[in-house]
Amino acid sequence: MAWTKYQLFLAGLMLTTGSINTLSAKWADMFSANGCKDSPEHTFSHPFVQAVGMFLGELSCLAVFHMLLCHDRRRPEPKMNTGQSFNPLLFLPPALCDMTATSIMYVALNMTSASSFQMLRGAVIIFTGLLSVAFLGRRLVASQWTGILVTILGLIVVGLADFMSGHKDDSHKLSEVITGDLLIIMAQVIAAVQMVLEEKFVYKHDVHPLRAVGTEGFFGFFILSLLLIPFFYIPVGSFSNNPRHVLEDALDAFCQIGHNPMIILALLGNTVSIAFFNFAGISVTKEISATTRMVLDSLRTVVIWVVSLALGWEQFHGLQVLGFIVLLVGAALYNGLHRPLLARIPCCASMVEEEEEGNPAERTRLLDEGRVQEES
C-alpha cells in the first residue's frame, strides 16, 4: 500500500528530528568557551543541564496535547480519545528512570562518538526482553531470543570498533571511550526498567501518548532542575570536566552560553527536536505501524553516522559497519520484521503462523498494525 503525503511527512519528520536530537547534543559538547569569573576556556561539559533541556522538550508535548484537545472540543463531534482518568504520580517511577538513564547517556556522549552512542542504545532490546519475561510474564518466541543473542554480538563488534579506534582518536582517550560505552549500556538497563514500568502500570490506563510523554517530562524537568542545586556542591574530581570539578556546574553552563551564544542554538535544537520527535514517533505508530517506527529509528543511526563522518567529528572504521549491520539484524529479528518475508515462502509460512499463535502479545501487536485479520 502506497503511503500518503502526510505519512511520508511524518516519516521524514521522525527521521530528521531524531537525528538532530543526538547531533545537536554532540554539537553542544564540542563547543569551548570561557566560564564564570573569567575562568579559562574549556569545553561545554554539562550533561545534566542538557538533560533538563531534553525534559523541557518532553514537557512541551503536554502543551501540545491540551492544544489538540481544545481544538477537538470545538468540533461538532469530538473524536479525540483522551483515555481514562489517572493519578499523575503513576508516571513518577518511569520518569525517574528516564531522568537517570538520560543523564547517564549525556555523560557518556561526552566520552564517545555520536554514532557509537546511537548504535549502543540498541542494547535496550536485550534488557527489555529479559525484564518483560521476568516481570510481565511474557513468553518470547525463538526469533526474539535469537534477536537478543545477535544484538549482544553486535554490541561486542561496536565495542571492539571503539576500542581499536580509541588509540587513534585525538578527541577522546581510550579509557574515556570504553567508560562512555559502558555507561550507555548501563543506561539501557534503566531505560528497559522504564519501558516495563510503563507497560505494567501506565499503558493499561489508556493514557494518550502525548499526555504520557508530557507528564513524564514534567516530573523529569522539575526534579532534575531542583537536583542541579545539590549537584553544584558535590565534588567528583577528575570525572567532571567543569572547572570546579563538581557533578554539575549550572552557573558555569550559563556563563559559557553567554560567552558563546552558539551553544544555546545547539541546546534549543536538542529541546525542540525531542518534542517533534516524540510527536512524529507517536503519529507514525498510529498512522503507519510500530514496525515502521522501529525501521526509521534504525535509519537515523545511519544519518547520525554519515553526518558525523562528513563533519569530521569521527573517523570511519569498517568494524562499525559490521556492528551496525549485526545490530540491525538483531533488532529486525526481535521486532518480527522477518515474518512478512518468511510468510511468502511456502515452506516457512506455517512456522511463522505457529510462532505468532504461540505468542499472544505478538499477535496483539500485529493486529494493531493491521497485518493480520481478526477472526469474526
TrEMBL record:
Pfam families reported for this sequence: SLC35F
Keywords of this entry: Membrane, Mitochondrion, Signal, Transmembrane, Transmembrane helix, Transport
Biased composition (Basic and acidic residues): 360-376
Signal peptide annotation: 1-18
An annotated GO cellular component: mitochondrion
Disordered, as annotated region: 356-376
Localization, UniProt: Membrane; Mitochondrion
UniProt superkingdom: Eukaryota
InterPro entries in alphabetical order: EmrE-like (IPR037185), SLC35_F1/F2/F6 (IPR009262), UCP036436 (IPR012404)
Segments crossing the lipid bilayer: 48-69, 89-109, 115-136, 148-165, 177-197, 218-236, 262-282, 294-313, 319-337
SUPFAM superfamilies named in the record: Multidrug resistance efflux transporter EmrE
Topology in the lipid bilayer: Multi-pass membrane protein
Any GO MF annotation of the entry: transmembrane transporter activity
One biological process term in Gene Ontology: negative regulation of mitochondrial outer membrane permeabilization involved in apoptotic signaling pathway
Stored PANTHER family: PTHR13146, SOLUTE CARRIER FAMILY 35 MEMBER F6
Family recorded in the similarity comment: Belongs to the SLC35F solute transporter family.
Subunit text: Interacts with SLC25A5.
Function: May play a role as a nucleotide-sugar transporter.
UniProt-recorded name of the protein: Solute carrier family 35 member F6
Organism: Coregonus suidteri
